Amino acid sequence: MANINILDKSIFNRIAAGEVVEKPASVVKELVENSIDAKATNITIEVEMGGIKKIKVTDNGIGMDKENLPKAFLPHATSKISTLDDLDKIGTLGFRGEALSSIASVAKVTALSKIKGAEEGTKITLSGGEVENITFVGCTDGTQITVEDLFYCIPARAKFLRKPKTEESEITNLVSRLILANPEIIFKYVADGKTIYHSTVNGLKEAIYTIYGTNTIENILPVDYTYQNLIKVSGYIGKPSFVKANRTYQTILINGRYIINKTISTAIYSAYEPYLMKNAFPFFVLHVSLPLDKVDVNVHPNKLDVKFENNNLIYGAFYNPISEELQKLSSKIREYKT
Ligand code: ADP
Ligand code: MG
């Protein structure tokens, strides 16, 4: 029989990293979600060469002190859950404690952080998962994490990186969802020195304007609905005449988290069906809030899909308000014509 080896920490980390850090966009997602969890109100995202060369995320959140900053890069290190019970009511975007350790094991990382009131901040550099240096520096409150040369130490993974422009457009897509998900946060997104998005804090409509521009704003209807005193759905849907050729213009956010879910898509399409042509994709940006125990986010490491306790309830919460709005619009149009 073959001998069983217990894998060394560094090898194990790199394998685990494969799940969390698939590509540059996943690094951006993890870093920005950490900034949001840290209650930042201002987040700057800078990328170079589609994030392959450099990803830098700067926030004005709660920061980490000198004890906690090095700990953040250890595997399974999280401040967001501590007991099994916490798993039933996850209110943060992260909770697995895997992201920073995974990122640090596959790239060169520099992190700077300072908590409010502290005299100085801490700076740590890591390479291939190992801490290289810790120093104390003057810096502003909050955290700045720079990730350079992604996958430099894993040539087999680096091979799977796509063209910088392709990686960049995936990051841009992701950042647009983050802006739509968090209209109360000021985001600045810069790619290769060029500012792509700079959001303000004037609500969801303004966020939609930042991403999609004037034409979109003129073609959307507000939705604001509470279903069975439990599920609140609010945001904007596109007029049936304002359709797109793909799903890039569709965003569902549950408790602030961007998700993709079959039940929800089916409900929305059913509501639009009487008004749409085949292969046309309606526009929508919808925020949903529902009690934490009605949704299970602990489904897949990339956390894009969620499971619901009651699918019929979710279906109704989307079908009803959208169908109602579209009916109102279509009778208005009919009145206008007659
Ligand atoms: P998780 O987010 O699942 O807890 P991470 O590996 O992403 O795991 O982060 C580890 C820990 O580092 C977090 O739980 C948090 O305490 C701390 N942390 C990470 N990023 C930030 C940040 N931008 N500001 C403040 N604390 C942070
Ligand atoms: Mg995290």
Core attributes:
binds adenosine-5'-diphosphate, 338 residues, eight-stranded mixed beta sheet, binds magnesium ion
Q: What is the secondary structure topology, with strand pairs?
A:
Layout: H1 9-20, H2 24-37, E1 42-48, E2 54-59, H3 68-71, H4 99-106, E3 108-114, E4 121-127, E5 130-137, E6 142-148, H5 155-158, H6 164-181, E7 186-191, E8 194-198, H7 204-212, H8 214-217, E9 220-227, E10 231-238, E11 243-244, E12 250-254, E13 257-259, H9 262-272, E14 281-282, E15 284-289, E16 295-296, E17 307-308, H10 311-337
Magnesium ion binds at residues 30, 33-34, 94, 99.
Description:
The protein has helices at residues 9-20, 24-37, 68-71, 99-106, 155-158, 164-181, 204-212, 214-217, 262-272, 311-337; strands spanning 42-48, 54-59, 108-114, 121-127, 130-137, 142-148, 186-191, 194-198, 220-227, 231-238, 243-244, 250-254, 257-259, 281-282, 284-289, 295-296, 307-308. Helix content is 33%, strand content 27%. The chain is built from ten helices and 17 strands. The protein has an eight-stranded mixed beta sheet with strand order 5-4-3-6-2-1-7-8, with helices on one face. Strands 9-10-15-12-13 form a five-stranded mixed beta sheet. By secondary structure, it is an alpha+beta fold. Helix 2 packs parallel to helix 6 and helix 6 (164-181) runs antiparallel to helix 7 (204-212). The model has no long low-confidence stretch (mean pLDDT 89). 36% of the residues are buried. A hairpin with a 2-residue loop joins strand 12 (250-254) and strand 13. The structure holds adenosine-5'-diphosphate and magnesium ion. Magnesium ion is lined by residues 30, 33-34, 94, 99.
